[in-house]
Amino acid sequence: MRMLMTVAIAAAALGTGGAAHAQSGNVEGRVDRLEREMRAVQRKVFPGGAGQTVEPQITPETNTVIPGVPASSPVADLTQRVSALEGQLTTLTGQVEQSQYRLRQLEEAFNAYKSATDARLKGVETSSRPSVPGAAVAGDTATLDEPAPASAGRPAPATEKPAAKPTGARAQQVAAVAKPSSNDPAEDAYTYGYRLWQAKLYPEARAQFETVVNKYPQHRRASYSQNLLGRAYLDAGAPSLAAVAFYENYKKNPNGERAPDSLYYLADALTKLKKPSNEVCKVYNELTQLYGDRLSAEMKAGVAEGRATNKCK
After folding, report:
1. Which of 35, 72, 87, 141 lies in disulfide reach of 76, CB 3.0 to 4.6 Å?
2. Which residue did the predictor score with more confidence, 303 or 9?
3. What tens digit of pLDDT does each residue of 267-299 get?
4. Which CATH superfamily is domain 123-150+166-309 in?
5. Torsion sign over Cα 125, 131, 137, 138
6. How far is CA 140 from the centre of its chain?
7. Structural contact between residues 196 and 170, judged by C-beta atoms closer than 8 angstroms
8. In three state form, how does the secondary structure of the chain look?
């Protein structure tokens, strides 16, 4: 009888030990899988190299003795902790995937904005240039003896002649305009051109503005001169040549002090050329988006009137 009880107790002990061993092996396999997944997540979160960790702000106390009897066996407690780790790893993986998705959305939005901006600029450039280099469009009353802007980036037509030296009453008008004299030749040329423009001596004024643009392109008055070059063409009744001058000032020197003015008057030149309203509206949109905070009250009022006239949305 006592022999049978001994055998039964031994069998029960072996059964319990075997079950515990099998359960421990299952936990070890889950821990190994967790370690591999955690290393994969660390490679995503810390792409700079392995071994980078984040120190916790709160650390557990050491040598703490917890009184009482454990509510569960060590194997069951370890299984519960592994399950908690699996849940945290799943949450972290989801957060990484959401961050990658948002990054892709930002990249797609930026590429779409860049494509739309390039298309608007291309449309403005196409609408502001004459269809044939050096040829005036319909409604342009510019004469061939008026020189085209040298900064327009196109060869001068063979039939176009430089402005002749003024004679008679014209020469007296030019001579009546005072020439400035200082230690800054670029400033002097711009100031003299500005005075000629105010006197409505447009060909002579354009010659001074072209001098500043060609000889002193880095001078702050280069932006002023290129803009007034377009104004001189526009006032002389040559809107197509004015549009080229205005667009060149905006394209080549977008940070220049008169780049917003050139976009503003480019819309005016396109309107005088009877261009479609959508092309004029593109210029107004570009002007307000890029230089809205730099526009004077008068220009803002002009933009509002122009947008209303062309029914811009």
Report:
1. 72
2. 303
3. 999 999 999 999 999 999 999 999 999 999 999
4. Tetratricopeptide repeat domain (1.25.40.10)
5. negative
6. 36
7. no
8. CHHHHHHHHHHHHHHHHHHHHHHHHHHHHHHHHHHHHHHHHHHHHCCCCCCCCCCCCCCCCCCCCCCCCCCCCHHHHHHHHHHHHHHHHHHHHHHHHHHHHHHHHHHHHHHHHHHHHHHHHHHHHHHHCCCCCCCCCCCCCCCCCCCCCHHHCCCCCCCCCCCCCCCHHHHHHHHCCCCCCCCCHHHHHHHHHHHHHHCCCHHHHHHHHHHHHHHCCCCCHHHHHHHHHHHHHHHCCCHHHHHHHHHHHHHHCCCCCCHHHHHHHHHHHHHHCCCCHHHHHHHHHHHHHHHHHHCCHHHHHHHHHHHHHCCCC
The CA R_g of the chain, rounded to the nearest whole Å, is 40
Q: Which distant-in-sequence residues (6+ apart) come within 8 Å of 215 by Cβ?
A: 186, 189
Structure tokens at 86: 């699996």
Provide the token pair at 242.
């004015």
For 208-226, the pLDDT digits (tens) are: 999 999 999 999 999 999 9
Which position has the token pair 């000889």? 215
| pTM reported for the whole predicted model | 0.49
**Contact criterion met (CB below 8 Å) for 139 and 274:** yes
Q: At what angle do helices 259-272 and 297-309 cross, to 10 degrees?
A: 30
